Amino acid sequence: MTELQAIILGILQGAGEFLPISSSAHLALAPWLFGWEYQGLAYDVMLHLGTLLAVLIYFAKDWLKIFRDAFASPRPAGGNMLWLLALASVPAAVAGLALNDLAETVFRAPTWIAFNLVFFSFVIYLADRKPAQVLDEGAFSPRHALLIGLAQCIALMPGASRSGMTIMAALFLGYTRSSAARLSFLLSTPVILGAGLLEARKITPDQLNAAFAWGLAASFVSGLAFIWLLMAWMKKRTLAPFLAYRVALGLAIFWLLRN
């Protein structure tokens, strides 16, 4: 893999991790479309570490407060956030271990990815149009944590989108768009960290080269940019443009497969 290819994959990872367009779909499709050598799921997951660093830096003050409040005595309002985020991460951890082989093979077929891109666009659209979205992070509860965590499991299928599924679930539960995005980004931290630790053992020494370093840097920088973009976007706008892009990409894949 060349440095330019790694940078492109890093940018796709940074955009797809936080925009509801599926980073795993784009990382799987790029080699297929351009004829590049596919580096494997482990390589894709390791690129996620750049976006992990991005979300840690962007929400550094939030994470410090979350950890401080979690161990304070008496516990302040919102002091359960750390434990709720941990609870929400359990379903994805279990599903990831159970379905890891499928995630690396069957789920990455272009036809499957195209279907997921189109189908889940309509599901996210329904959530985005749901009225009475008034809840903020203060309403986050064990029940909500489990439901959003279960929705996150769907993102094991490339094309569904981790951010898309968690934002969708939060919107269906009645959270505001900005609160749904913030919860999604905070929840990405333990999931990316866990997946990175699980897949790190599969990375071969020859993959840890200059190109990989450029890919990590690109995913970090683009990740910061797209976190900022979506947080600002969700305050005033709907997800419609991202959903239109998903549908167009899915239909384009179907067309390419038929020709």
Q: Can you describe what's shown?
A:
The mean pLDDT is 90. Helix 5 (81-98) packs parallel to helix 8 (142-153), helix 5 crosses helix 10 (177-199) and helix 9 (162-172) runs antiparallel to helix 10 (177-199). The protein has one domain. The chain has helices at residues 3-18, 23-34, 41-58, 60-70, 81-98, 100-104, 110-128, 142-153, 162-172, 177-199, 210-236, 240-258. It has 259 residues and is mainly alpha-helical. It starts with a helix and ends with a helix. It is built from twelve helices and no strands.
Please give the number of β-strands.
0
Low-confidence stretches: none
Q: Structural class of the helices, strands and pairings? A: mainly alpha
The rough form would be described as globular
Whole-number mean pLDDT = 90
Q: What's the story with the biggest beta sheet?
A: none
State the share of residues found in helices, binned by percent: over 70%
Radius of gyration: 18 Å
Number of domains: 1
Distance between the termini: 27 Å
Q: N-to-C SSE series?
A: HHHHHHHHHHHH
What is the count of helical runs? Answer: 12
Beta strand %: under 5%
TL;DR of this structure?
The protein has twelve helices and no strands. The chain is mainly α and 259 residues long.
List key phrases describing it.
mainly alpha; 259 residues; 12 helices
Describe the SSE topology.
Layout: H1 3-18, H2 23-34, H3 41-58, H4 60-70, H5 81-98, H6 100-104, H7 110-128, H8 142-153, H9 162-172, H10 177-199, H11 210-236, H12 240-258
Helix pairs in contact: 1-2, 1-3, 1-11, 3-10, 3-11, 5-8, 5-10, 7-9, 7-12, 8-9, 9-10, 10-11
